[in-house]
Amino acid sequence: MSNRFHKDLAVLPREAVEATYASTIAQVNRLDEERQRLYMDKKLRSEVIKFAVNKIQQPPLIDHPELHANLVQAINEKHEFDRLLNGRDELTARLAVPRHRLVQAMGSFYERLTVSTKASEAPHLAAEMEMFSKFFEMQAMVRVYDGHQGLHAELDDARRALLETVKAINREDRKFTQRLNANNEQSRPLRREAGRLRAYLKGIPGTNPAPVPEQVEEFTLRLAAGNSLSIEEFAAMLEHGGLTKFEETEAPAAIPKKRSTTAMRRAEPRRGRRRPGKRDP
Fold first, then answer.
1. Are residues 154 and 21 both part of a single domain?
2. 252 part of a folded domain
3. Which range of residues forms the domain containing residue 48?
4. Do 184 and 82 fall into the same domain?
5. Is 63 among the domain residues?
């Protein structure tokens, strides 16, 4: 790098440049840590939403619940919704017949049992006893329905509450994206400045500045956070060595083997005597 890029540094003591370089590296490291933390938080929110919409069966483990009140709320609301849903399914499986059908059947039985009819149309004793038995059974089922009449309302309220919480988490995800973009905008000029300072310090005898931390690519951060990548993103990582880093060692040059003169023989046309044919004189 030419001296004109270091003109402002040349007038400063070496210790001042070293201190500025160390401060710049500290800011770069802080932004890198913040970026990694943001990606982990985004992954945690994604897992909570997947649990809320039944894409996964178990909620993620939240190490610091005091820092993620809305995520804890979403998990608790999902548990409450599942409890009410299971209660409704058990009730439906136990009763089987809808309440309005029970009420209609009870009205029909009551009319046949109480309204005076002709003797020829009146039910016989066995049928009357069976109708009374079914009437009392249906009456007990209706009482069970009435005892759980608030269950559906509670289930609807739990569904709406969970939906609103998930929407709030999605809105926070947009803010996380804005913070990630701001992080990139802050980190880029700092890395350039750190590279300029290090290049200047390397030109001073007796100095050995530490290297600038390598910038972790977005694909690597998303993969470390457990987020899924597309096939195109995996191909890009493989092309640029983002999945694994190998030490580049120079392989010894292979000694070319000499060709054996006996193995390679020159192909020459082989001429022989023609066998006499019909046209030969």
1. yes
2. no
3. 3-212
4. yes
5. yes
Task: Dig out the tokens for 81 from the structure.
Answer: 């919704």
Per-residue pLDDT of the chain (281 residues; tens, 9 = 90+): 446 678 888 888 989 999 999 999 999 999 999 998 888 888 899 899 999 989 999 999 998 899 899 999 999 999 999 999 898 888 777 766 777 777 787 788 777 777 655 555 666 777 777 777 877 777 777 777 776 777 778 888 999 999 999 999 988 888 888 898 899 899 999 999 999 999 999 888 878 888 888 776 554 555 544 455 444 443 443 343 444 343 333 444 444 455 544 444 444 455 555 555 545 44
Q: How many domains does the chain have?
A: 2
CATH number of domain containing 123:
1.10.287
| Sign of the Cα pseudo-torsion (5, 7, 10, 11, in order) | negative
Residue carrying the six token digits 């109480």: 114
- Domain assignment present for residue 278? The answer is no
DSSP code string of 162-187: HHHHHHHHHHHHHHHHHHHHHHHHHH
Q: What would the two tokens of residue 14 be?
A: 């070496």
Nearest in space to 225 (alpha carbons), one of 180, 174, 279: 180
**pTM for this predicted structure:** 0.57
- Do 106 and 230 reside in the same domain of the chain? no
Q: From CA 9, how far away is CA 200, in angstroms rounded?
A: 8
Contact between 165 and 48 (Cβ < 8 Å) = no
Residue 241 CA to residue 237 CA, distance in Å, equals 6
Instruction: Give long-range contacts, CB 8 A cutoff, 24+ apart: 12-16.
Output: 14/201, 14/204, 14/207
56 and 172 in a common domain: yes
Task: State whether 160 and 227 are in the same domain.
Answer: no
Compute the distance between CA of residue 163 and CA of residue 116 in angstroms, rounded to an integer. 56
Cβ atoms of 25 and 195 within 8 Å: the answer is: no
Residues 43 and 95 occupy one common structural domain: yes
Q: Are residues 144 and 121 in the same domain?
A: yes
